[in-house]
């Protein structure tokens, strides 16, 4: 069956029968979901309490589904933007494989399911935080900040930084300084990570009318801000050791990773504006992913070793 949907970026023919399970999986943004699940899991493991493995599994499932719900709602609303950007044009909605109304319904159902499950199997503090995270990403970031201000990714980065806090709350029923530090690591990491991407994808953002920093403030200003954030990220990464939540081995690793982040950012700062290949920006983008994964892996290892009495 064929339908025509007028959704703000022209008339697009949709063939409902073309939607496959893989398209609905794509709506969940599985790569983003994997990072959410991992950081939430670290938040759970580093919490100073035990949790029933059965409850832990369902809590992680609920957080994963909540992340997927956010992705589906984002793709529903951003279909017009996705349709003109090279890296998103083949997503299920702009490509015509899934109707916008289907993506919206899918996201809303998953949102309710994830919040309800987390509240029932863990606690309603964690469920409330998950609900706020979904709302923040889908409404505050996607519907407002993304199209309104070049600070979109700065403020909107909070949505991606909440998972370790949600994971911690699922175990303890509250929030304390350590998950807030984990939140800050992701929150402050987000702008240089995405601005590095925006430097070599500025044409996409310009065509879509998204006010990313390079398109509004210019390349030179963006590079300076990336470097400034990198300095703050490097300091924030060692805070778990400074406050006694992690051992010296973690602190040394985090310091080394932070120096690497600053070095890659320095290379971006020194990159001439005539460099259209933008290899330094691409290198920083790649390293930033490694940085976040390594930092949270180290926090996880530190917690496990601490429980075994092996932390230095």
UniProtKB/TrEMBL annotation:
Enzyme class: transferase
Keyword Membrane included in the entry's annotation: yes
Compartment(s) of residence: Cell membrane
InterPro entries, sorted: Protohaem_IX_farnesylTrfase (IPR006369), UbiA_prenyltransferase (IPR000537), UbiA_prenylTrfase_CS (IPR030470), UbiA_sf (IPR044878)
Membrane topology term: Multi-pass membrane protein
Gene3D superfamilies the record matches: UbiA prenyltransferase
Enzyme Commission number(s) from the entry: 2.5.1.141
Pathway: Porphyrin-containing compound metabolism; heme O biosynthesis; heme O from protoheme: step 1/1
Signal sequence region: none
Keywords: Cell membrane, Heme biosynthesis, Membrane, Transferase, Transmembrane, Transmembrane helix
Note, other: Carbon 2 of the heme B porphyrin ring is defined according to the Fischer nomenclature.
Family designation: Belongs to the UbiA prenyltransferase family. Protoheme IX farnesyltransferase subfamily.
Protein name per UniProt: Protoheme IX farnesyltransferase
The organism's taxonomic lineage, starting at the top: Bacteria, Pseudomonadati, Pseudomonadota, Alphaproteobacteria, Hyphomicrobiales
């Amino acid at each position: 069956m064929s339908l025509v949907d007028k959704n703000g970026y022209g008339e697009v023919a949709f063939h409902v029968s073309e939607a496959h399970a893989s398209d609905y999986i794509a709506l969940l943004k599985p790569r983003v979901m994997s990072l959410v699940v991992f950081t939430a899991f670290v938040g759970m493991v580093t919490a100073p309490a035990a949790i029933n493995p059965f409850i832990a599994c369902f809590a992680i499932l609920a957080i994963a589904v909540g992340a997927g719900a956010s992705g589906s709602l984002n793709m529903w609303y951003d279909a017009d933007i996705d349709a003109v950007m090279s890296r998103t044009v083949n997503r299920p909605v702009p490509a015509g494989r899934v109707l916008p109304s289907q993506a919206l319904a899918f996201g809303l159902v998953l949102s309710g399911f994830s919040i309800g499950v987390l509240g029932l199997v863990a606690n309603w503090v964690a469920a409330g935080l998950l609900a706020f995270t979904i709302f923040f990403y889908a409404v505050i970031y996607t519907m407002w900040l993304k199209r309104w201000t070049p600070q979109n990714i700065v403020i909107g980065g909070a949505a991606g930084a909440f998972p370790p806090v949600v994971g911690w709350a699922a175990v303890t029923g509250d929030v304390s300084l350590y998950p807030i530090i984990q939140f800050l690591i992701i929150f402050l990491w987000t702008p240089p990570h995405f601005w590095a991407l925006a430097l070599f994808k500025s044409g996409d953002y310009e065509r879509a009318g998204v006010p990313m920093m390079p398109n509004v403030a210019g390349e030179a200003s963006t590079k300076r801000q990336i470097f400034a954030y990198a300095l703050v990220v490097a300091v924030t990464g060692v805070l778990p050791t400074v406050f006694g939540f992690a051992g010296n081995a973690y602190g040394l690793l985090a310091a080394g990773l932070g120096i690497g982040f600053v070095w890659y950012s320095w290379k971006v700062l020194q990159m001439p504006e005539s460099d259209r290949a933008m290899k330094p920006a691409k290198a920083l983008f790649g390293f930033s992913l490694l940085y976040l994964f390594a930092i949270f892996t180290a926090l996880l290892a530190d917690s496990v070793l601490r429980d075994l009495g092996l932390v230095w």
